[in-house]
Amino acid sequence: MAHKKVIRNGRVIDPSQGIDRLADVLIEDGKIVEVTNAPLESIAEDHEVIDASGLVVSPGFVDLHTHLRDPGFEWKETIESGTKAAARGGFTTVCAMPNTDPCQDSAAVIEDVTRRSLTGAAVRVLPIGAITKGRHGKVLSPMGELAEVGAIGFSDDGDPVSDANIMRQALTYATGLGLPIINHAEVHSLVHGGVMNEGPVATRLGLPPVPASAEAVMIARDIELAALTGGRLHVPHVSTAAGVELVRAAKSRGLDVTAEVTPHHLTLDDTWVYGLHGEVPDAVPAVAYDTNTKVNPPLRSVADVAAVRAALADGTIDIIATDHAPHAATDKVCTYDEAAHGINVLETAFGQVMQLVHQDLISLSDLIDPLTAAPARILGRNFGTLAAGSNADIALLDIDSEWTVSADDFASLSRNTPLEGVQLKGRVVETLFAGESVWRSDRLEQPAS
Ligand SMILES: [Zn+2]
Question: Is position 387 within any domain?
């Protein structure tokens, strides 16, 4: 007998179809049957009922930028733990960055990740192939072969493709394959040993600074190469006002350029480096910083945060991607210089970005679009939608629920969040992948208060 479910009485928001209304969602055999026009009067008895009263029913989130660390760094994260973390965060599709060991620069490694994901992942894993062999930036990877076995784009993320001619070739080949090049936008020589954003906080802490131009110069170069080749350029983790302006100008030229922003660059500025949750101390204390704020690109100035927020709201930035970058405690219990770059994001992402809705900077539907339909469009895949016939990948959201971040509760193997103890407003209550529950919080079990 067919397995039928109905999600009842929720506020269904599906930007792919322009839906934002009270409705029921009917599911059969893991697929969406329909989003009804209004909550149904009665439901046939053969349906399992999920009561979504008071909740938002969204397509499952699609993350174009996830570091699963598998193969090679399984003490930080695995396909299994990373996708469990994704499920808790409402994500039903994650795109796995290739800076693994071995890196995803050969068909064999891509096939291995795909094969292990089919049995060991809680949600869908789509691999990203390396642009260059070994991510060394010298010789192109066999991009055609990687695409054939399922790579959804190419990136050397963690490092840029510094050689402009290699980048030109990569854009040319990827265009023939219809796939985007995602180039980590950073000029190494401008970083020059810097560890945090250039500005008064870095000066006060005596930490070597990274100028905003380290990002902007690379974005500018890549946009010109996209213009030269007609290639598809996706700019990851835009963090600066200058970067935003370049993307805006590229779009107005009609270039095939898209961009993403992370939850942390949308919500945290460089004062968070002090480790006081955005408070600025009168005197620098004995423990002067929190290494969990060290990330690449770095947390930026208040003005940069305002710029990326505005760019998301006006559509200059297309999507929200997590850049989930789990690290073990040993990578962070050290000096700021020595600490690894990266923040553990999947499980806090929704609560973080909901800040923009609660502050009336963006509508809920306009926040869900860059988490669902917009990344699916970049992938050219039928995800991030509740359209009839699509996979029943769904996130149930309580947008007003307040909760306190406790990394000990993470499904991720790592704990590197600067948000420990911070209260967020908005949480993922349940996640369904292909119609099956892959995460359910206590919230649904508790009687309504
Ligand atoms: Zn990157």
Answer: no
Q: Is residue 384 part of a domain?
A: no
Do both 28 and 110 map to the same domain? no
Q: Is residue 329 one of the residues assigned to a domain?
A: yes
Answer yes or no: is 188 within a domain: yes
53 with 171, same domain: the answer is no
Active site residue 323: yes
If we measure between CA atoms, which residue out of 273, 270, 269, 245 comes closest to residue 259? 245
- The residue type of 43 is I
Q: Is there a single domain that holds both residue 45 and residue 72?
A: no
Q: Which amino acid belongs to residue 44?
A: A
CA of 341 from ligand 1 middle (Å) equals: 10
Token pair for residue 226?
A: 């996209």
Pairing of strands 436-440, 423-433: antiparallel
Q: CA-to-CA distance for 121 and 299, rounded, in angstroms?
A: 31
Rounded CA Rg of the chain:
21
What span, in angstroms and rounded, lies between the C-alpha atoms of 321 and 95? Answer: 10
Q: Which of 159, 222, 270, 323 is catalytic?
A: 323
Give the integer Cα–Cα distance in Å for 243 and 308: 9
The distance between the two most distant Cα atoms of the chain, rounded to a whole number of Å, is 68
Digit-coded pLDDT (tens) for 352-411: 999 999 999 999 999 999 999 999 999 999 999 999 999 999 999 999 999 999 999 999
Give how many domains the chain has, as a whole number: 2
Please give the model's pTM, rounded to 2 decimal places: 0.96
Judge if 177 and 286 occupy the same domain.
yes
DSSP characters for 245-308?
A: HHHHHHHHTT--EEEEE-HHHHH--GGGGGSSTT---SS--SS---GGG--SSPP--HHHHHHH
Quick one: 31 and 110 in the same domain?
A: no
Task: Report CA(158)–ligand 1 centroid distance (Å).
Answer: 5
Q: Say what the pLDDT of residue 291 is.
A: 98
Summarised one tens digit per residue, pLDDT across range 151-210 is 999 999 999 999 999 999 999 999 999 999 999 999 999 999 999 999 999 999 999 999
Query: Separation of 160 CA from ligand 1 center, angstroms?
Result: 8
Rounded to the nearest angstrom, the distance between the alpha carbon of 31 and the centre of ligand 1 is 34
Q: Are residues 75 and 191 in the same domain?
A: yes
Q: Are both 106 and 156 inside the same structural domain?
A: yes
- The helix/strand/coil state of 343 is strand
Among 325, 355, 379, the domain-final residue is: 379
- What's 407's domain CATH number? 2.30.40.10
